[in-house]
Specification:
The complex is a heterodimer.
Chain A lengths: L27 H33 L4 H5 L5 H19 L18
Chain B lengths: L14 H17 L15 E2 L2 E2 L4 H36 L6 E2 L1 H8 L3 H27 L1 H12 L5 E3 L27 H14 L9 H8 L11 E5 L5 H9 L4 E6 L2 H14 L4 E4 L12 E7 L7 H14 E10 L8 E2 H12 L6 H6 L2 H6 L3 E3 L15 E3 L1
Parallel strand pairs in B: 4-7, 5-6, 5-8, 6-7, 8-9
Antiparallel strand pairs in B: 1-2, 3-10, 9-12, 11-12
The chains are: A mainly alpha, B alpha/beta.
Chain lengths: 111, 399
Amino acid sequence: MAAETNRPTYTVDAIPSDITNSVFLGNPALDNVMSCIIAMSAEMWATKRRMKVIESLLAKKGVTQDMIESYVPTAAETKEWEKERDRFISLAMGPLANDGFRSISATFPKR
Amino acid sequence: MIGRRKLFGATAGALVMSQTLQSEGVAAAAKLAPLTGPTKSYLPRGVDGRIARLASLQLESQQDFTLGFRLMHSKALRASSAAAFARVLEREGIDPQTPLSPEEVGKLVDTEPTINIASKAWLANQQVTWKTLRDHFHDNADYYLSEMEEADKSGPGTLELAPTMDVPTYARHEIHIQPGGYVGDPFAGHIYHYGTNSFYISVIGHNEQDQVHKSTAARMPLPEDGKVKRILDMGCGIGQMTVALKERFPDAEVWGIDVGGPMVRYGHMRARRLGVDVNFAQRLAEVSGFPDNYFDMVTSYIVHHELPAEITRKVIAEAHRVTRPGGVYYPVDFNSGGTKSPARMMYSRWYDHRWNNEVWSLEYHSINFTNEIAARGFQVVKNAKPALPGFGVRHTVKV
């Protein structure tokens, strides 16, 4: 908990499940990737939902959906957003380009 | 029949309850220190009928996702899994209606990726539900503990906790892979309440306003003499059924007992906020502590599939002792499925048992729950109506 406490909690030790030891997809790495995808999707939806709240509040203040849709970024904004886009894609998608072919037990290559 | 896996939808929020919760929330926030901790939250965010809104938009949205995912899973992923299952059975030359044991089903599906992606995705989604809720309540532990401590001391209703109880091993499992289970996390009640909202959505419908519990309580049969002065809800959890019963029978003395201290603690706080006078106690269902023949109605809500068969028998015996002659005993739970079922049904049941950590569910299905009740001094009422459609009809009367 956030702070160690002497306050009564009326709890006892639970017997943990072994869900973290399960392998559904034949390879534990794949199972882990699946967990990551679900968690990231939840975060993405939370962000999108927050955007909806923001846009809804903005609309009440006179900033409409049409204004948002038709907004033309400034040159400076365009440059900045492109940099951020490329950084995001490199981080999130870049590993697709990894060309792994060495097994874990391989020795150092000749250099 | 509604399969176990299908469980776990119009809001009819009660304006009076909403107002009670609203004023309680504001008053509570005024007395307590602001939330601190890594999770930046803003309280109160108001109420949605009978349930307080989660304290952050982020958390509420994460729960919204996991609920939506369950809905999608119940259609699209279930369909693809079913199609893959059918291909496996055809490949193996097995008639889909042939009853199989869990071991026989397990061998069929162990390496079938489409079936297992559906299973893995469901569990991963559930883990997101639990983790996001748990992190929030623990990050703001001081606030939430203070809330409960204030509620502990006052009514309406009463709360009896048993900090020195020797909690049996069978009750310590993390059912539904909920971290800490019902006994090991101080916020088990909070986590269970918000987490299980999404359990209902793809099967029965919404339950954020206790719709399922209220409708089940409304269908509970009366004793023949119509007298309902005292009611017992065994294994009450956070008391959703208990509160619904009190709301149906406002003049009755209503008790909810559960082995989980954090569960009844949260249940009492919730009932208090709803203005409902219920007695909660941390007690074992098999050792309730009530006098003989005390209750006119004894019930439980989907408890027994989470108990070993031996304990189920003891609970039935205890229910018989505390129910008065002519009183009603109606434990709501799944139909007893047997030890073998058609392949897809058995897979669903086995997977729920093994990986959703419903540790005792296969044992529950291996006995005939209705017969066990009948063997212990209760008469099963013929042609009875279901209290919860799709579940076992177990309207019984103490003779």
